[in-house]
Design a protein that fits this description.
Mean pLDDT: 91
Distance between the termini: 35 Å
Shape: elongated
Number of helices: 3
Strand order of the largest sheet: 1-2-3
Number of strands: 5
Helix content: 25-40%
Oligomer: single chain
Order of helices and strands: EHEHEEEH
Radius of gyration: 15 Å
Length: about 80
Protein backbone atom coordinates (compact mmCIF):
# COMPACT_ATOMS: atom_id res chain seq x y z
CA UNK A 1 0.00 0.00 0.00
CA UNK A 2 0.95 3.67 -0.22
CA UNK A 3 2.65 6.01 2.23
CA UNK A 4 0.55 9.21 2.37
CA UNK A 5 1.49 12.60 3.82
CA UNK A 6 -1.79 14.43 4.48
CA UNK A 7 -1.84 18.16 5.34
CA UNK A 8 -4.78 19.61 7.26
CA UNK A 9 -5.42 23.32 7.86
CA UNK A 10 -5.08 24.15 11.53
CA UNK A 11 -7.34 27.19 11.74
CA UNK A 12 -10.69 26.09 13.13
CA UNK A 13 -11.89 22.49 13.30
CA UNK A 14 -13.94 22.11 10.11
CA UNK A 15 -11.08 20.95 7.91
CA UNK A 16 -9.93 18.47 10.53
CA UNK A 17 -13.45 17.14 11.11
CA UNK A 18 -13.83 16.35 7.41
CA UNK A 19 -10.27 15.12 7.01
CA UNK A 20 -10.52 12.54 9.79
CA UNK A 21 -13.14 10.62 7.79
CA UNK A 22 -10.87 10.53 4.74
CA UNK A 23 -7.89 9.57 6.89
CA UNK A 24 -9.81 6.71 8.55
CA UNK A 25 -10.89 5.48 5.12
CA UNK A 26 -7.30 5.51 3.86
CA UNK A 27 -6.02 3.70 6.94
CA UNK A 28 -8.85 1.18 6.59
CA UNK A 29 -7.64 0.46 3.06
CA UNK A 30 -4.21 -0.37 4.45
CA UNK A 31 -2.35 2.87 3.66
CA UNK A 32 0.16 4.37 6.08
CA UNK A 33 -0.97 7.95 6.70
CA UNK A 34 1.02 10.68 8.45
CA UNK A 35 -0.92 13.89 9.03
CA UNK A 36 0.57 17.40 9.39
CA UNK A 37 -1.39 20.18 11.05
CA UNK A 38 -1.14 22.94 13.64
CA UNK A 39 -3.19 24.75 16.27
CA UNK A 40 -6.79 23.52 16.60
CA UNK A 41 -6.48 21.11 13.69
CA UNK A 42 -3.64 19.33 15.47
CA UNK A 43 -5.56 19.27 18.76
CA UNK A 44 -8.65 17.85 17.06
CA UNK A 45 -6.74 15.07 15.30
CA UNK A 46 -4.34 14.18 18.11
CA UNK A 47 -5.02 10.68 19.39
CA UNK A 48 -7.06 9.68 16.31
CA UNK A 49 -4.17 9.16 13.91
CA UNK A 50 -0.44 9.70 13.41
CA UNK A 51 -0.49 13.51 13.45
CA UNK A 52 2.52 15.78 13.77
CA UNK A 53 2.55 19.46 14.51
CA UNK A 54 4.00 21.97 12.05
CA UNK A 55 4.37 25.74 11.90
CA UNK A 56 1.25 27.56 10.78
CA UNK A 57 -0.08 31.08 10.66
CA UNK A 58 -3.10 32.10 12.74
CA UNK A 59 -5.95 34.50 12.16
CA UNK A 60 -7.05 37.11 14.72
CA UNK A 61 -10.81 37.47 15.17
CA UNK A 62 -13.12 39.94 16.87
CA UNK A 63 -16.84 39.25 16.93
CA UNK A 64 -16.34 36.45 14.38
CA UNK A 65 -14.69 38.79 11.88
CA UNK A 66 -11.07 38.61 10.80
CA UNK A 67 -8.97 41.49 12.09
CA UNK A 68 -6.42 41.93 9.30
CA UNK A 69 -4.04 44.26 11.11
CA UNK A 70 -3.97 42.09 14.25
CA UNK A 71 -3.52 38.99 12.08
CA UNK A 72 -0.51 40.59 10.40
CA UNK A 73 1.04 41.68 13.69
CA UNK A 74 0.36 38.32 15.31
CA UNK A 75 2.12 36.45 12.50
CA UNK A 76 4.94 38.85 11.68
CA UNK A 77 6.55 38.01 15.02
CA UNK A 78 6.69 34.35 13.92
CA UNK A 79 8.84 35.08 10.85
CA UNK A 80 12.05 33.96 12.61
CA UNK A 81 10.46 30.53 13.15
Amino acid sequence: MANILYGVAGEGSGHAARAIEVIRHLIGRGHKVVVLSHDRGFSYLEGSCDVRTIFGLQLAYKEQKIQYRKTLLKNITKIPE
